Amino acid sequence: MCAIIERDGRFLIAQRPARKSLGLKWEFPGGKVEAGESDCDALHRELMEELQIRVRIVEPLTPVFHAYEDFSLDLIPFRCTLLESGRLESHEHEALRWITLDEIDAFDFPEADIPVLEEYRNMVNSEW
Ligand SMILES: Nc1nc2c([nH]c(=O)n2[C@H]2C[C@H](O)[C@@H](COP(=O)(O)OP(=O)(O)OP(=O)(O)O)O2)c(=O)[nH]1
Question: Cα of 97 to ligand 1 centre, how many Å?
């Protein structure tokens, strides 16, 4: 699962390390669910491990199944708000950015994220 974390009209994106799969692509923070964990538990755990942050989960977006050449995944996105805005610590990413939807085209996302970005854009636009 992954988190679209909002703060002050922006949301957080993170760049994957070069040495990993999908290296240097930008993604939403998150990771894999471990045995016995709910999606929500896993999200809170991953965000604490990766960024040292706590969030409130606002709503789920539609899960995306995507088959890459060498692996497949179910990407389950959640819209969240940041609860504590201490200094963000990046433990597992190359870089972090708070961006607006207008800026998104400048960042290269994994293919699985394309439907997520589309749904999120529609969601935000319909709130105006
Ligand atoms: N967190 C996150 N992962 C994404 C997104 N889009 C996307 O295709 N993925 C892929 C990348 C990873 O292969 C997988 C997330 O699992 P992970 O974060 O635990 O995997 P990882 O690459 O850090 O570790 P590894 O198991 O590949 O060694 O999902 C996204 O927006 N956020």
Answer: 18
ipTM given for this complex: 0.93
Domain 2-126 top-level CATH class: alpha beta
pLDDT tens-digit map of 3-22:
999 999 999 999 999 999 99
Do 66 and 112 form a contact (C-beta atoms < 8 A)? yes
Domains of the chain by residue range: 2-126
**Cα 87 off chain centre by:** 18
Distance 40 CA to ligand 1 centre (A): 16
Q: What is the pTM of this model?
A: 0.95
